[in-house]
Design a protein that fits this description.
Blueprint (H helix, E strand, L loop, with lengths): L2 E11 L11 E10 L2 E7 L8 E4 L4 E4 L1 E3 L11 H8 L9 H10 L2 H17 L2 E4 L1 E2 L6 H12 L5 E6 L10 H9 L1 H6 L5 E6 L6 H13 L3 E6 L7 H8 L3 E4 L5 H10 L2 E4 L1 H7 L6 H6 L4 E3 L13 H11 L4 H15 L16 E4 L6 H4 L6 E6 L2 E2 L1
Helix pairs in contact: 3-4, 5-7, 8-9, 12-13
The structure holds N-(iminomethyl)-L-glutamic acid and fe (iii) ion.
The site of N-(iminomethyl)-L-glutamic acid has 13 residues, from helix 2.
Length: 387
């Protein structure tokens, strides 16, 4: 196995609590990659020899971003819907059906190419782990193919047959829940690690959501919930009561929701690109962090409610609009995302972790929010390989 020394690191974010501070930052640092993992981390002056060496010239190095929420298997876009929103038409879950119609008509090759394009886009912005959901097929075969395609790009695949009730089941929503918990679930087992449900007015109610989550858990899928996006509702507390890994969106929270998140340990996924692009109020991350809730930041990249694939954009919004410090925002975009996906091998740079890291075109990670909109990703390594 060949080893590579990265040296001349002005600021290294390890997320290792043993190194102190939230980010376990090491100044004037070096690290050694062996094969696909991190073998050594420390001060530049103490670095061991390796087969090769790269001096990053004082740049900052951070863990690759872990984007724990994205919808990438779809066809077409909804740019006109976005334009209408900007002149006052509110976002509603109904737009999902537009993308469902386009996705059903697309070929496997078209859908695969779209995912490849977006994963590449993400990678260029420093993301090295991404969760990918189905949810624009909503038939047994279309959901199964979406998850097979997602699985070509990530192990973090999520079955979202319960995105909305498709038009052909408009008069029979319970029939659709039976499909989602029965034949559709059976068709995706083996291709999905997670099951997600959109608990919202216009999508699925609490009882339907519980039935769907429990069916997935019984078949060995982990649970995730789209919760409290468009208004207060039962989503967050449902996620907590079934032991979901994540309750994502959390745009509208009651005190009881915050308490439930804190006591259950369910990760709150905050998705500020969605508030940006739907003109909704941003959730107050400070309220969650102060209550002891683990917060993940993710893009929720999708053609409807928000079409950004950029974790740096989310970090900048989190700092400017959600009362997170730059350190907290970076932690949530890396270690927080890993917690949301229940991964211990990514989201930090300590010996034994996957060598997923990003070299910034900046001396410290503060520049991610200090210089919003500027492409600051110099290099990304994934499993030890640059590219
Ligand atoms: O996470 N809220 C549900 N699903 C997506 C939006 C999907 C769409 O509008 O196409 C979301 O925001
Ligand atoms: Fe989503």
């Amino acid at each position: 196995m060949t080893s590579l020394l990265l040296t001349g690191i002005g600021s290294l974010v390890t997320n290792d609590p043993a190194r102190g501070g939230l980010l376990g930052e090491v100044r004037d640092a070096a690290l050694v990659i062996e094969g696909s993992t991190i073998a050594w981390v420390g001060s530049r002056l103490e670095a061991p020899a390796a087969d090769g060496a790269i001096d990053v010239g004082g740049r900052a190095v951070i863990p690759g971003f872990v984007d724990s929420h994205a919808h990438l298997v779809f066809a077409g876009d909804r740019a006109e819907e976005f334009a209408a929103r900007m002149t006052g038409t509110p976002y509603s879950a109904g737009g999902i059906r537009t993308t469902v119609a386009a996705t059903r008509q697309a070929t496997d090759e078209q859908l695969t190419a779209n995912v490849a394009r977006l994963v590449t886009e993400m990678r260029r912005q420093g993301t090295t782990t991404v969760e990918i959901k189905s949810g624009y097929g909503l038939t047994v075969s279309d959901e199964a193919r979406a998850l097979e395609i997602a699985g070509q790009f990530t192990e973090e695949t999520t079955y979202l047959g319960a995105h909305v009730v498709p038009a052909e089941y408009a008069d029979d929503p319970s029939g659709y829940v039976s499909l989602v918990t029965g034949p559709m679930l059976e068709a995706v087992v083996g291709h999905a690690k997670w099951l997600d449900v959109f608990v919202e007015r216009g999508a699925f109610d609490e009882d339907q959501g519980r039935a769907i989550l429990e069916a997935g858990l019984a078949r060995g899928l982990g649970a995730r919930v789209h919760a409290n996006q468009l208004g207060e509702g039962p989503g967050v507390q449902l996620a907590c009561s079934v032991g979901a890994a994540a309750a994502d969106h959390c745009t509208y929270l009651t005190d009881a929701d915050v308490d439930a998140l804190a006591s259950s340990g369910v990760v709150a996924g905050l998705l500020p690109a969605i508030e940006f692009s739907t003109r909704s109020p941003y959730p107050n991350a400070r309220r969650l962090i102060d209550a002891g809730v683990t917060v993940a930041l993710a893009t929720d990249c999708n053609p409807g409610s928000g079409y950004s694939s950029s974790m740096p954009f989310c970090i900048a919004l989190a700092v400017r609009e959600m009362h997170m410090t730059p350190d907290e925002a970076l932690w949530s975009a890396t270690a927080g995302g890993a917690a949301s996906l229940r991964r211990t091998d990514v989201g930090h740079l300590t010996p034994g972790a996957q060598a997923n890291l990003t070299v910034l075109e900046a001396p410290t990670h503060l520049h991610l929010s200090y210089r919003p909109g500027v492409p600051l990703i110099s290099q990304t390594y994934m499993a030890g390989r640059m590219g």
